[in-house]
């Protein structure tokens, strides 16, 4: 595995940290456990996997692809890491991402962009671009990502792999460095839905260390890996096929819909309200939460500290000015602004109301349908550099993914063909709350 990584990573730059020595130590420990008769029922035992660099790993640098955390070594494991280790997974490295998971291209990383393995002139998507590209380039069997507004599904879509973001509260966020806490959720990226599901099953579960974690009875998602969509009711919001959608992506999605029909599912278009308002509402809420979450990076407690200061105020100001990149600064400023006393009602409160409307729209849709189908993104992977000059355009490209996080729903992105340039097209299947099994079954049947 490390031979492949060393050969390919100079071209794709999926990894921030490779953990070769640690991996061998883990492998020996796993062998010992297997010899002792443990792990016989773990599907993940001994399988090499990668972790996005915003998930804390004890003793291993966790940078969020930011200068402000370039030297941060956590003293504890995130709950998901504990669970994976328990299951005998071998963590082989930490993957590149947009700085603090803010972005859709993995270009805002302090360490430079990851490249799309299908075409190195294109972005891999983001923010979990390193994880998706690593899986696509076979530099890992599967990987963890985080999804605040599409960061698992969109890079999975651009890289032609499968990614699942579970229902909010299904996977513990303990040890995930927060971007927007009411939206963040950890999920898995793999070469197919079976791999994603096996890993999701291991990392899911109630955790007392995360107060938003939910206690469900049944996490056996692998039961849903069956090829049967007969009578499954699938709805396609008309607006998901409307303006702004690339023609080849539309064709790919309509083809996929037809495949479901042929397999016996009931597929129809319907009107869903609030689609247009999802992006503005998302960016107001995400930035507001980010401005609060990121205030802890002050140059004092951990991470980067400026060398150039005279008093405490200077330490804060200069460490933050020098430590954060432009996109992160932009979002913290927007966040502080929408939360400020004079504008709170006009922006933040209004965004919360829109969030409620979006939620309602989904609830109503799920009275009629088991699954909502649509594209993951309006286009296939853009060229490197294209989005950096036009952040607004980049934000708008999140149109199909962000509403899922606003409503806390589960969704999967899986490949459904390619465009003429050979770039993968992503198909998104959205489920109702705790409806992971529906989307897993549909994804499995589609594959
Ligand atoms: N592109 C979105 C953003 O920049 C989503 C990022 C994410 O899910 N972490 O906020």
Automatic annotation (TrEMBL):
A single GO cellular-component term from the record reads: glutamyl-tRNA(Gln) amidotransferase complex
> Which reactions is this enzyme annotated as catalysing?
L-glutamyl-tRNA(Gln) + L-glutamine + ATP + H2O = L-glutaminyl-tRNA(Gln) + L-glutamate + ADP + phosphate + H(+)
User: What are the entry keywords?
Assistant: ATP-binding, Ligase, Nucleotide-binding, Protein biosynthesis
Source organism's superkingdom? Bacteria
Q: What class of enzyme is it?
A: ligase
- Which Gene Ontology biological process is one annotated for this entry? translation
* E.C. number: 6.3.5.7
What is any Pfam family matched here? Amidase
Ranges for domain Amidase: 1-438
Residues at the catalytic site: 52, 127, 151
By its UniProt entry, which InterPro entries does this protein fall under? Amidase (IPR000120), Amidase_CS (IPR020556), Amidase_dom (IPR023631), AS_sf (IPR036928), GatA (IPR004412)
**A single GO molecular function term of this UniProt record:** glutaminyl-tRNA synthase (glutamine-hydrolyzing) activity
- The keyword DNA damage appears for this protein: no
Q: Which NCBIfam families match?
A: gatA
The record ties this protein, via PANTHER family, to: GLUTAMYL-TRNA(GLN) AMIDOTRANSFERASE SUBUNIT A, TRANSAMIDASE
Instruction: Fill in the subunit field for this protein.
Output: Heterotrimer of A, B and C subunits.
Its family? Belongs to the amidase family. GatA subfamily.
**Function summary:** Allows the formation of correctly charged Gln-tRNA(Gln) through the transamidation of misacylated Glu-tRNA(Gln) in organisms which lack glutaminyl-tRNA synthetase. The reaction takes place in the presence of glutamine and ATP through an activated gamma-phospho-Glu-tRNA(Gln).
Provide the protein name. Glutamyl-tRNA(Gln) amidotransferase subunit A
Q: Which organism is it from?
A: Mobilitalea sibirica
């Amino acid at each position: 595995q490390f031979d492949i990584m060393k050969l390919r990573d100079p071209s794709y730059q999926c990894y921030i940290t490779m953990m070769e020595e640690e991996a061998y130590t883990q492998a020996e420990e796993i062998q010992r456990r297997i010899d002792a008769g443990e792990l016989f029922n773990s599907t993940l035992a001994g399988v090499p996997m990668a972790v996005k660099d915003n998930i804390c790993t004890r003793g291993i640098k966790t940078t969020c692809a930011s200068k402000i955390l370039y030297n941060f070594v956590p003293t504890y494991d995130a709950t998901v890491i504990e669970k994976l280790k328990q299951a005998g997974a071998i963590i082989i490295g930490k993957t590149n991402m947009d700085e603090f998971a803010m972005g859709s291209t993995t270009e805002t990383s302090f360490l430079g962009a990851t490249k799309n393995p299908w075409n190195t002139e294109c972005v891999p998507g983001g923010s979990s671009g390193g994880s998706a590209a690593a899986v696509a380039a076979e530099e890992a069997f599967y990987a963890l990502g985080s999804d605040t507004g599409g960061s698992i599904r969109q890079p999975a879509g651009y890289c032609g792999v499968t990614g699942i973001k579970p229902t909010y509260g299904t996977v513990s966020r303990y040890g995930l460095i927060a971007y927007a806490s009411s939206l963040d959720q950890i999920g898995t990226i793999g070469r197919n839905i079976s791999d994603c599901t096996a890993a999701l099953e291991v990392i899911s579960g109630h955790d007392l260390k995360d107060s938003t974690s939910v206690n469900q009875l049944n996490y056996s998602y692998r039961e849903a890996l069956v090829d049967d969509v007969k009578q499954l009711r699938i709805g396609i919001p008309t607006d998901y096929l409307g303006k702004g959608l690339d023609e080849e992506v539309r064709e790919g999605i309509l083809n996929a819909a037809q495949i479901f029909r042929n397999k016996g599912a009931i597929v129809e278009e319907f009107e869903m309200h609030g689609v247009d308002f999802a992006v503005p509402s998302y960016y107001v809420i995400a930035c507001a939460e980010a401005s609060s979450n990121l205030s802890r990076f002050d140059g004092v407690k951990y991470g980067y500290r400026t060398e150039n200061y005279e008093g405490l105020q200077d330490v804060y100001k200069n460490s933050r000015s020098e430590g954060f990149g432009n996109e992160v600064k932009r979002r913290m400023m927007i966040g502080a602004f929408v939360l400020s006393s004079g504008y709170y009602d006009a922006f933040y409160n209004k965004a919360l109301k829109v969030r409620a409307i979006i939620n309602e729209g989904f609830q109503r849709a799920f009275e009629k349908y088991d699954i909502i189908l649509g594209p993951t993104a309006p286009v296939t992977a853009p060229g490197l550099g294209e989005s950096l000059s036009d952040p607004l355009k980049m934000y708008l490209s999140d149109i199909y993914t962000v509403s899922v996080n606003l409503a806390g729903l589960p969704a999967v992105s899986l490949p459904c063909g390619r465009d003429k340039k050979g770039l993968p097209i992503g198909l998104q299947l959205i489920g109702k709350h705790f409806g992971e099994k529906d989307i897993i079954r549909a994804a499995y049947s589609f594959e």
